[in-house]
Amino acid sequence: MRADQILHPTDAGLYCPPGDFHIDPIRPVARALITHAHGDHARAGHGAVMATRQTLEIMAIRYGEDFAGQRQVADGPTRIGDTTVSFHPAGHILGSAQIAVQPRSGPKIVVSGDYCRRANPVCAPFQPVPCDVFVTEATFGLPVFRHPDPAGEMVRLLASMVEFPDRPHLIGAYVLGKAQRLIVLAREAGIAGPIAIHGALQRLCDYHAEQGIDLGELIPATAADVPAQLVIAPPSAFASPWVQRFRDPVIGFASGWMAVRARARQRGVELPLVISDHVDWPQVTATIRELAPEQVWITHGAEDGLLRWCELQGIPARPLRLVGYEDEPE
């Protein structure tokens, strides 16, 4: 059986005929395997969903307990139709996983979803999984993207807080994964006092704490006189009246896209923090070299740049050109 007979793109997303399931489908399907709970990969309305326990629990928080007809926790290799599937840590956010698909006969395919090779204190590290075909994201799949050490970005944040002690620092961060990672990085950098959070972050921060991730003292950012110099909110909050309660704030944003200074200027970001939960160019190319798959399939981003790199390395590659995936919607 050829790889494209095991898994191929459709209007609904990646489909596996021998297992009769989709991976991260963008519309409701009968059976979905979900890599992680970001809204551009995990949607409600499927007949059945298989994912890690944490991903299923986060989906229930975000979409309600009835987000799918049935749920199944991914726990070890599982037979589905004429395939065996298994879930392996992706290092992206809490509960994130790569999905390995092994047919009865034919190549083994690993769908990485979104993944990161840099240490992330709020989730399990990426686990390299040997495979014949590796499906990789290319969110930052251009040589210009070389993300700095997050600890160094936190040094910049602390320096700004020292330089402007009377100005609240409002940092935009996606509500799931990035916000909690930013809080832990701030704690590791020495911020011991209360950190204020927008109400949209509360339930997911509570869930991370329930999973044993120490976020320290968090207080609601509900008043103009919040007793915390550091405030974390979803990016959408900065376009709402909520931000007007803060006097002369330093506006920041934590994202890999802050490496593009034009994006920071367009958003009015005074303190861009280049902190990404995706692989950058050195990480994605190093991962492909490490796995040494027979084929690379590329999706979610700058497909053409990574396609050209694979060609120069003599690695057969193809773009999947899936639609409907982007940064976590806010």
Helices and strands in order, then pairings?
Blueprint: H1 3-6, E1 8-10, E2 13-16, E3 21-23, E4 31-33, E5 46-51, H2 53-63, E6 68-73, E7 78-80, E8 83-89, E9 97-103, E10 109-111, E11 133-138, H3 150-163, E12 169-172, H4 178-188, E13 195-197, H5 202-210, E14 218-220, E15 230-233, E16 250-254, H6 261-266, E17 271-273, H7 281-291, E18 295-301, H8 303-313, E19 317-319
Parallel strand pairs: 3-4, 4-5, 5-6, 10-11, 11-18, 12-15, 12-16, 13-14, 13-15, 16-17, 18-19
Antiparallel strand pairs: 1-2, 2-3, 7-8, 8-9, 9-10
Briefly summarize what is shown.
The chain is an alpha/beta fold and 330 residues long.
Q: How many structural domains in the coordinates?
A: 2
Largest sheet: 7 strands, mixed
Poorly predicted parts: none
Shape: globular
- Return Rg in Å: 20 Å
Tell me how many strands there are: 19
Number of helical stretches of at least 4 residues: 8
The top level CATH class name of the largest domain = Alpha Beta
| Distance N to C terminus | 41 Å
What is the fold named in CATH at topology level of the largest domain?
Answer: Metallo-beta-lactamase, Chain A
Strand order of the largest sheet: 7-8-9-10-11-18-19
- State the secondary-structure class: alpha/beta
Features:
single chain, 330 residues, alpha/beta, Metallo-beta-lactamase, Chain A, Rossmann fold, 7-stranded mixed sheet, 6-stranded mixed sheet, 8 helices, 19 strands, 23% helix
